[in-house]
Recover the amino acids of this structure.
């Protein structure tokens, strides 16, 4: 189970993180670490909203989030 975060630096020095499996997830930070932390937090919020609204989860999380009998 993985949701890789890609981190890149803008020309102005800011960092941002994106998660390809969750379109629209992008967060900024002044440092690489801040961008990674902000992106992780946003991923958790997006996943919680998807679960609450009955939406599908990324394929890499289906087994991780499976309900066991």
């Amino acid at each position: 189970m993985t949701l890789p975060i890609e981190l890149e630096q803008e020309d102005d020095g800011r960092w941002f993180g994106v998660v390809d499996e969750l379109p629209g997830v992008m967060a900024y930070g002044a440092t690489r670490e801040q961008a990674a932390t902000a992106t992780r937090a946003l991923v958790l919020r997006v996943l919680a909203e998807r679960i609450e609204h009955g939406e599908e989860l990324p394929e890499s999380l289906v087994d991780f989030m499976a309900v066991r009998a």
The chain is about 35% helix and 15% strand. The first strand starts at residue 6 and ends at 9.
